[in-house]
Amino acid sequence: MNNKKKNEGQTDFSYYGLYLLDYLRTNKFEQADDTAFIRERADRAAETYEKARLEGYPADGAQELAMDTLLRGLHYSRYAILREVVENEFSDEVPEEKREAFIQKLLPLVGNVFSVYDFSDDNFALSSDYDLLYTELTGATVLFIGEYGV
Length: 150
Prior knowledge:
Blueprint: H1 2-7, H2 15-26, H3 35-54, H4 59-71, H5 78-89, H6 96-106, H7 111-114, H8 128-148
C-alpha cells in the first residue's frame, strides 16, 4: 500500500519523465516532488529527440542530445556532493551502514556552505569553486564529528 501511494501519479510519465523522477529522487533534488517541472523537462527532452531524428541523427546521438536537455543544470545536488565528501574523506570515521543517516543529519546543517555556489553549471565539478566547496564541506564535517560524533 505504501508503495502504491509512492508511485501514485507517476504512471502517466513518459520514459524521460520516469528517468528524471528516479534521478531526482536518487540524488535528493528538491524538484523530485515538482510534477510540472518533471513534465516540462521530459517534454523538452522528447522534442529534442524527435527534432534530432528528423535532422538525421542516429538514435544514439538523438538520445544523447535528449538526455543532455533533460539533465541540463541538474548534475550536482547538495546531497550528492556531501555524500561524495563523506564517502571519500570519512570512510573510516563513518561506517557504511551509518552513512545515509549521517548525511541526512548533516545536510541541513551545512546549507549555508552551499548557498554561495552555483550548481547549475554542468562543469561545476571542474571549477575551482567545486574544490573550495569540497574543502569547506570537509572542514564542516570534521567539526561536526568532533562536536557530535557519528
